Amino acid sequence: MEDLLKVYAFNNSEVSYCQGMNYIMGFLYHNIREESTTYLFFNVILEKYFSKMFGKEFAQLKLLFYQFDRCLALFMPELSEHLKVIIIHIYNF
Predict the structure, then answer these.
(1) Which domain holds residue 26?
(2) Given a cut of 70, is residue 93 above it in pLDDT?
(3) Residues 77 and 93 in one domain
(4) For residues 17 and 6, what is the distance between their CA atoms, to the nearest angstrom?
(5) Are 46 and 9 found together in one domain?
(6) Is 61 found in the same domain as 50?
(7) In total, how many domains does the chain have?
(8) Residue 92 pLDDT level (bands cut at 50, 70, 90)
(9) Spatial separation of the C-alpha atoms in residues 42 and 48, rounded to whole Å
(10) What is the pLDDT of residues 43-88, one digit of tens each?
């Protein structure tokens, strides 16, 4: 699996490797059990669904964290305040 991630990082220099990709690759490999097919599925999934999230400066990921932070403050204000009190900031970019 580590080799597949290295190949992906080499072939996609703009994205390279980001923490969490190993979970996606691991899940795919566990279910497919064949390296080349796993790599192809991984590549398609990242291009189709995560390209903007893991792209340059993580613009989409930052937006999602901001949206989550706002939703938490609106719908669960006590939890949002508690997390801020114990210095856990969801959106801190």
Answers:
(1) 2-54
(2) no
(3) yes
(4) 8
(5) yes
(6) no
(7) 2
(8) low
(9) 10
(10) 999 989 887 777 777 878 888 889 999 999 999 999 999 988 898 7
